[in-house]
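A common beginner's mistake is to predict each chain separately and then try to dock the pieces by hand. The better habit, illustrated here, is to supply every component at once so that their relative placement is modeled jointly.
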Amino acid sequence: MHALVLQSDFGKADGAVCAMYGVAESVQPGLRIFDLTHEIEQYDIWEGSYRLIQTVSFWPEGTVFVSVVDPGVGSTRRSIAALTDDGHYIITPDNGTLTHVKRLCGLKCVRLIDETVNRMPHAVDSYTFHGRDIYAFTGARLAAGVIRFDDIGPEIPQDSVVTLPLIDPKMQDGAIEGTIDVLDIRFGSIWTNIPHSLFKELHIDYGERVQIEIRNDTRALYRNVMTFAHSFAEVFVGEPLAYINSLDYLAVAINQGSFARAYSIGTGNSWHIRVSRSPF
Amino acid sequence: MHALVLQSDFGKADGAVCAMYGVAESVQPGLRIFDLTHEIEQYDIWEGSYRLIQTVSFWPEGTVFVSVVDPGVGSTRRSIAALTDDGHYIITPDNGTLTHVKRLCGLKCVRLIDETVNRMPHAVDSYTFHGRDIYAFTGARLAAGVIRFDDIGPEIPQDSVVTLPLIDPKMQDGAIEGTIDVLDIRFGSIWTNIPHSLFKELHIDYGERVQIEIRNDTRALYRNVMTFAHSFAEVFVGEPLAYINSLDYLAVAINQGSFARAYSIGTGNSWHIRVSRSPF
Amino acid sequence: MHALVLQSDFGKADGAVCAMYGVAESVQPGLRIFDLTHEIEQYDIWEGSYRLIQTVSFWPEGTVFVSVVDPGVGSTRRSIAALTDDGHYIITPDNGTLTHVKRLCGLKCVRLIDETVNRMPHAVDSYTFHGRDIYAFTGARLAAGVIRFDDIGPEIPQDSVVTLPLIDPKMQDGAIEGTIDVLDIRFGSIWTNIPHSLFKELHIDYGERVQIEIRNDTRALYRNVMTFAHSFAEVFVGEPLAYINSLDYLAVAINQGSFARAYSIGTGNSWHIRVSRSPF
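With all components supplied together, the output reads:
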C-alpha cells in the first residue's frame, strides 16, 4: 500500500476535500492520505504544476499524487495517469499540470483514464466534481493496490500530453536571462527558473555582489545590487539577497521582509529576471 | 477501529485543533484522524450542519464525526451523539448542527452524552473547551472501540433534537421557489435547496435557457437568463450558468468568476431564488 | 513508533510542508504525522513557543514535535532536541522556541543536533530549508525508532538553551499585574500569563465583577468592569467577560465578538493587564 497525496484549488473551508478523503477511506480503510496543498489559486494550472515539482521527489517511490486544478471539468479534456522516471504516480486532468514534472523528472508512461471503469460506483450524477468521483477514487485504488497502473486505461504517447510553455534560461553577454516561476508565498521570496548550475557560470562567490534586474512585458520594476548569500542570516534584517533555494534554483528575497510585495513582483513567463556580476 | 473526522470553527492558526488530535491519539495511538474543515464561520451552526451533509455519506459506515460549533459552551445546551440511518456517528452540541443530516439522512438513534463519564480524566478544570475535553475524547473512544455507542448515555427522543428552520422548495405557477443554502466558497458558486428531482419538473434540457431571480428580504439582487449546463466548460469564461452540483442540487455560477461576489449574494433562509423557464 | 507533530511558519499554500511530510514518510512509511499549526506569524518565535505549551501535554509520551520558526536559518544558531520532564521530544532551532516549555513543563535533557549525521542524505545543497533536510528528517527518525535520543548528538547544559524573557505576574496592592501572552486567534480572546491559582487570591467568585485595565508601553487602552464567568454562555451576546481559559489561565473576551479587535489589543511583554476586584 502506498501513500496518496492530494492537491487542488478547492481550499479547505468547505467539504470538498473531506469528501475526497472519504472516498479514499471507503476504497481502503487505513490508506495513508496526505495533502500537498489545496490553496492553489483557482484555475492556476501553472502553480499546480510547480508545486508537484517542489514535492514529488521527496516522497517514496510508488506514492500516488492526485492533482485537481481543473477549469475544464466536464469538457473533452482527458483524464490521465502518469508514471514518472523515479516511480511516482500522478493522476490529473490533462491540462498542463504535468508541465514541470515531465520536463524535470521525466515520464516513463502515461495512460488515459477510462472513466467508464474508473469512477466511483453509485456516484451522484455529477459533472462538476471529478476530483471526488474519478481522481480520488482512482488514486486511492491505485495506492491501495486494488488496481494496477495497467488497469487504468490505454497508454498514450507522451508527446500528446498537454504542457504549458516553459522558457529556458540562457546566458547571454555575461548575464543570465530567466523568468520568475513562483513565489515562496508566505515569505515573499521570488523563485526563478535559473538553476544553480547555470548561475555558477557567472563565477560569483558567496559573499560577493550580484546585480538583479526585473521587468515584465510593460516596464522595469527593479534594478539593484545585492549580496549573494548562503541564507537570509548572512545579511541584515530588511536587506535584499540572492540565494540558492531549496530546489537548487536562484531566488531573491528580503531578509524578514517580502520582496514580492515590496516591488509588486508577479510570476509567469512575462516576468523576466536578468542576473549579472555587480558592475561596481 | 473506525476513522474519526473533526469539524469546528476554531481555525488551524492556534493549537486548539492540535490539542484535540492529541487527546484522540492518547485515547488510542494509531487512530485514523481527519479534518472535515475547521474554517466554519465562527458560531455558524447552519454552515456546520451543511458541511456534514456534504461529506458524511462519502465515508465508510462506522465513521465517527465530531462537530464543534458551540456558541453555547458552558450553558445548559446538551451534548449528544447520533447514529444516522446509514451508520455514521455524529457527536456535537445539541444546537442545530444535526439539522440537515436529520432531514436528509435520517437518524436511527440519538443519545445524551453523560459528561460525568465521557470526559477526559485529569482535564484542566475548563468550561470553555468541551471540543477537547468531551467531544474529541468521546469521539476517539467510540471510533477506537473503547466504548460502544450504548455506553455514551441514555437514548433521547429524536424530536427533542434541536434543529434550525429548513424551508422546503416548492413549485408554484410554473416556477420553483427555493433558498440559497450555502456557497461553494472558493469558486463563489451559490448552492440552492432545490433538488435535481424537483428541477426536472420544469422540463428544461441541458443547453436550454433558464431564468434565475434572486432576492433577499429587502430587495431583488439578480434577474437574468442563463444556460443550464452540465458543467462550467460548456459556457464561455465569464458567462453565468445553472447546473446540478456535486450533491445533486441546483447551483448557479459564473465560469471562472465568483457569482456570489459579483452580485453580493448571501446565504440562509432570507435569501430566495426563483427558477423558471426562460420567457424568450 | 511514536507520532510526529510538525509546526512552522511556512503556511500550507506552497509545497514546503508537503516536502517535510514526504521526507518523514520516506524515513518510515506509515509513520503517523500530524500538524500543530503552520500559520505561526513569520519569524514569531514567541508564538511558536506558546503553541507548544498549548498542545504538548495533550499528546502521548514519546511524541516527537518538530517546530521550525527559524529566522536564523543558515546562521550559527544551534539545532537542538529536548526531552521534557513529561517525556515529549521537541526538535527546533535554539532560538527561544523552548521558552514556555522549559519554564512550565521542565526539560530533562537537551542535545545538540549533530548536523553532519542528522541530515537527509543526497539532499540538495540547501542552506535555507533545514526544516526539511534536518528537522523533519531527524524528527521522523526519532519517532520511528531508527535512532535513539542519545544518537542525536552530545548533551548540552540546560542553561545554555536560548529563552525569551518571560515576565512573572505578581500580586501588588490587591491587584494582579500580568501580561498578554497570546490571542485565541479566531475568537479574539486575549490570554494572559495569570494562572488560575494566582487569580484565586483575589477571592472573586464566579458571577462577581472584576476590573480589567490594559495598557501598552505608550498608553492605556481599556479600563472596565465585567463579569467573571465560567464560560461565554453566562453573559449576553456582545458582553465582555473574564474567564479561566482551557490552559487554566485568566482570559478576557467578548461573547461572540472580538475583544482584541474591538480595543486593538496586541500581545507580548509590552502589553500589560491589571486585574482587581470591582471598586463598585
